[in-house]
Amino acid sequence: MKLMPLTEPGDAIACAARAIIEMVQRKPDAILGLATGGTMEPLYALLVAAHRDGLSFARIRTVNLDEYVGLPPDHPNSYHRYMARHFLEHVDVPPANSFIPCGHIDPARAASQYASLLDDLGPVDLQLLGIGENGHIGFNEPGTALDAPTRVTALSPITMAANARFFSPGAEVPSQAVTMGTAAILSARRIVVLATGRAKSAALADALDGPVCPECPASYLRLHPDCTIHADHAAGALLR
Ligand code: F6R
Predict the structure, then answer these.
(1) Distance 23 CA to ligand 1 centre (A)
(2) Span 49-66, average pLDDT
(3) Across all residues in the chain, what is the average pLDDT?
(4) From CA 107, how far away is CA 37, in angstroms rounded?
(5) Residue 12 CA to its chain's centroid (Å)
(6) pLDDT value at position 146?
(7) Over the stretch 116-134, which tens digit does the pLDDT of each residue have?
(8) Element (H, E) at 51
(9) To the nearest whole percent, how much of the chain has pLDDT over 70?
(10) Which of 32, 34, 36 to mutate to test the pocket of ligand 1 (most atoms within 8 A of CB)?
């Protein structure tokens, strides 16, 4: 695992976006593993700008990490809508090439179908990851094993509290998600992590300086042969 020098937030975001753009240029039919969340919004804006400047995603396939249980795809807080709003509606990824798990109607079945889809597609070329305040990756929360499958999982109170900022005041925040498992995440050929802001500093320090253990699933990234972390000064504030 490689920690890039700490930068201003805009530079960390630009470097992570650059890694994706270079992958698309080098391998126009790459499989990209995509993440959602506040951290990634400015990164998608850079990918959309690159598309406006001529970068084509027409042969790219995308697989998302997760989706909330209980939200239909057209719910404003679903990750389906997030991806449409921030990326997919603005670029030329064919709709048939983009995959996001379904979290409503029958989440357990949707999770096992998503696991089969990931198996059929084969290894992700570049997996983009954010990091949770408690060290989660995807929605693999503390306590998740190294080889956890793609599944329905419970969100921790810390994650629910962090995600509440995206929901209207008083709205119920989902307590479960369908998530790509740690096994699938770690099977990506390359992983690019983006961490910005002070709220990520403890998780990043645990991930990089603490033991590799289930209490901090992000620590598993140290076992990956090609994982690069782009972090800003605030996220890196507690690193040794
Ligand atoms: C999102 C995901 C999560 C987020 C993490 C950080 O698809 O899998 O692991 O990357 O919760 O979210 P933000 O960026 O909102 O702090």
Answers:
(1) 22
(2) 98
(3) 98
(4) 21
(5) 16
(6) 98
(7) 999 999 999 999 999 999 9
(8) helix 41-52
(9) 100
(10) 36
Tokens of 170: 């008083």
Q: Determine the Cα–Cα distance for residues 109 and 48; give it in Å rounded to an integer.
A: 33
Instruction: Provide, rounded to the nearest whole percent, the portion of the chain with pLDDT above 90.
Output: 100
- What amino acid is encoded at 122 in this protein? G
Q: At which residue do the structure tokens 């020098």 appear?
A: 5
Q: pLDDT by residue (tens digit) across 10-33?
A: 999 999 999 999 999 999 999 999
51-to-32, 38, 47, 109 alpha-carbon distances in Å: 15, 21, 6, 35
Query: What is the set of domains in the chain, with CATH numbers?
Result: 8-180 (3.40.50.1360)
Q: Residue with structure tokens 């993440």?
A: 35
**Per-residue CA distances from 2 to 10, 75, 90, 155, 183 (Å):** 19, 37, 31, 28, 20
Cα 166 versus chain centre, distance:
16
Q: The tokens of 16 are what?
A: 């992570």
Judge whether 43 and 153 are in contact, CB under 8 Å: no
Is the separation of the CB atoms in 51 and 45 below 8 Å?
no
Closest ligand 1 atom to 163 CA: 15
Token representation of residue 223: 């076992």
- How far, in Å, from the CA of 240 to the mean position of ligand 1? 24
Helices (H), the chain: 9-26, 41-52, 79-86, 107-121, 157-163, 182-186, 201-209
CB-based contact 228:193 (threshold 8 Å): yes
Whether residue 108 contacts residue 69, with contact meaning beta carbons closer than 8 Å, is answered with no
DSSP 8-class letter at 9: H
